[in-house]
Design a protein that fits this description.
CATH topology of the largest domain: Carbamate kinase
Order of helices and strands: EHEHHEEEHEEEHEEHHEEEHEEHEHEEH
Number of strands: 18
Strand order of the largest sheet: 3-6-2-1-9-11-12-10
CATH superfamily of the largest domain: Acetylglutamate kinase-like
CATH architecture of the largest domain: 3-Layer(aba) Sandwich
CATH class of the largest domain: Alpha Beta
Shape: globular
Helix content: 25-40%
C-alpha cells in the first residue's frame, strides 16, 4: 500500500469551512487506496496572535514558555480535522508531535529533529486510520516541548515522509505551485512544472515563501518525492526533482525577494587570525543563523566584517556582536535593521557565463544601488534598499525573460 504524507498550512485550515474542504481532500487520497498521514499547521493567524499576547505580557518572554504556548495552536487544528474526517465516515486519529515520537535537540524556537519513533504511526496506519499529526513541534529527551521555527510544519511533513519511506509528500498551500517570482510582485510570473531540490533549497533560503528551506534540505537528503499544490484549486502543482533532463536550457529558474533581515557590521576588527571565529562562534552558540558575510579590505591593520541575520534575531545578535567587539578589541558595531535581499537562482548558472553581469545591469538600469553581494554556484544575492525590493524583482525577472517558457521546455 502506498503511503502519502499531506501537509496543509494555516490558511488551508483557517476555519470550519476550510477544515471541511481539507477533510474531503484527505478522504479522496485515502479512498484511492493510500495510507495517509496529514500534517497541519495552526489555524490562520493563530501563531501570530499567540506571539502577540506573549509580547503584551513581556518584551522578552522566556523561550521555553513561548514554545509551550505556540505548540497549542497545532493541537487545535489536529483535533478539529480528526473530528471532521470522522464525521464524514472515515476513521481518523490525531497526535501531537511528542505523542508521535518526534524527538528534537534541546533548543527552543528553532529546534532540529534528531529522531522519529514511527511505531505508533505505523500501528495507526496498519489499523486503517488516517493519521493527523501536529506540525512545527517536537519533544526533547527530557520531555520538554520544542518548536521547529516558522514554517516548521513543512519540515515535520518531510521528516515523517522520510521516516515512513513514503511514496510522496504533498505540500498544500494557498498557491498552486512554485513560480518564477511572487505573482503578487510580478503578475506575469510563470508557474514551474518542475524545479530541482538545489534550486528550491536556494529559493526557500533567500525568501521564496512556498516551502521552508529545512524541509527541502530533508527532502533532498532522503530523496523524498515532493510536490507543491493548492489547497483551493485542482492542478498538477510543481514537482521538486533531483535534476532536469536538460539542465542547460534553464539559466535562471526564479527570482526571490527577502525582507525581514538586518545587517550588523563589526568595525575596525584587528587583522589577525581568530577574530572572525570569535564573532561567529558566539553567534553559533546562541543558535543564531547568519546569512551573508562580507569582510572588507581594511587599513592600519584593521578591517570591517558585515553580516546579516533574521530580524527576530537582531536584538540578541546586536548584543553578542557588541560583546565580541569588546573581547577582540574592535572599534564598534554599526547596525541597519531595514534591508532587503533580491536573489536569482538557477542550475543553468553552472554552465552559463555572464549571469552576474546581467543581474547588476538590470539593477543599474532600474536605478537600484547594491550594498552587498554574495554568490553560490546557482545563486546570486544582492542586498538593497527595502523600498526598491519589488522594482528589483521586476527588473531581474524581465532581464532573464522568465515570463516566457524556456525553449524546448
Amino acid at each position: 500500500m502506498a503511503i502519502v504524507v499531506q501537509k496543509f498550512g494555516g490558511s488551508s485550515v483557517a476555519d470550519a469551512q476550510c477544515l471541511g474542504n481539507v477533510a474531503r481532500r484527505v478522504i479522496e487520497e485515502y479512498d484511492r487506496g493510500s495510507a495517509v498521514v496529514v500534517v497541519v499547521s495552526a489555524m490562520g493567524k493563530t501563531t501570530d496572535n499567540l506571539l502577540r499576547q506573549a509580547h503584551e505580557l513581556s518584551p522578552d518572554p522566556p523561550a521555553r514558555e513561548v514554545d509551550l504556548l505556540l505548540a497549542t495552536g497545532e493541537q487545535v487544528s489536529v483535533a478539529l480535522l480528526a473530528i471532521a474526517i470522522n464525521a464524514l465516515g472515515r476513521r481518523a486519529i490525531g497526535f501531537t508531535g511528542p505523542q508521535v515520537g518526534i524527538e528534537t535537540e534541546p533548543k527552543y524556537g528553532r529546534a532540529r529533529i534528531v529522531h522519529i519513533n514511527d511505531a505508533k504511526l505505523r500501528r495507526a496506519l496498519g489499523d486503517g486510520r488516517i493519521v493527523i499529526v501536529a506540525g512545527f513541534q517536537g519533544v526533547t529527551q527530557d520531555q520538554e516541548i520544542t518548536t521547529l521555527g516558522r514554517g516548521g510544519s513543512d519540515t515535520t511533513a518531510v521528516a515523517l515522509a522520510a521516516a515512513l519511506k513514503a511514496d510522496r509528500c504533498d505540500i498544500f498551500t494557498d498557491v498552486d505551485g512554485v513560480y518564477t517570482a511572487d505573482p503578487k510582485i510580478v503578475p506575469q510570473a510563470r508557474k514551474l512544472r518542475r524545479i530541482t531540490y538545489d534550486e528550491m533549497l536556494e529559493l526557500a533560503s533567500v525568501g521564496a515563501k512556498v516551502l521552508h528551506h529545512r524541509s527541502v534540505e530533508l527532502a533532498k537528503n532522503y530523496a523524498v518525492p515532493l510536490r507543491v499544490l493548492s489547497s483551493f484549486d485542482r492542478g498538477t502543482g510543481t514537482l521538486v526533482v533531483r535534476e532536469y533532463e536538460n539542465m542547460e536550457q534553464f539559466v535562471v529558474s526564479g527570482v526571490a525577494l527577502k525582507r525581514g533581515e538586518s545587517k550588523l557590521s563589526v568595525l575596525g576588527v584587528p587583522d589577525r587570525p581568530g577574530m572572525a571565529a570569535e564573532i561567529f562562534t558566539r553567534l553559533g552558540e546562541a543558535n543564531i543563523p547568519v546569512d551573508m558575510i562580507i569582510q572588507n579590505v581594511g587599513s592600519d591593520g584593521r578591517n570591517d566584517i558585515s553580516f546579516t541575520v533574521q530580524h527576530e534575531d537582531f536584538r540578541q545578535a546586536h548584543r553578542i556582536a557588541e560583546e565580541a567587539c569588546r573581547a577582540i578589541g574592535a572599534l564598534g558595531v554599526a547596525a541597519d535593521e531595514g534591508i532587503a535581499k533580491v536573489s536569482v537562482v538557477g542550475v543553468g548558472m553552472k554552465s552559463h557565463a555572464g549571469v552576474a553581469g546581467r543581474v547588476f545591469r538590470a539593477l543599474a538600469r532600474a536605478g537600484i544601488n547594491i550594498d552587498m553581494v554574495s554568490t553560490s554556484e546557482i545563486c546570486i544575492s544582492c542586498l538593497i534598499d527595502p523600498e526598491a525590493g519589488e522594482a528589483a524583482v521586476g527588473a531581474v525577472h524581465e532581464e532573464f525573460g522568465l515570463s516566457r517558457p524556456p525553449q524546448g521546455a
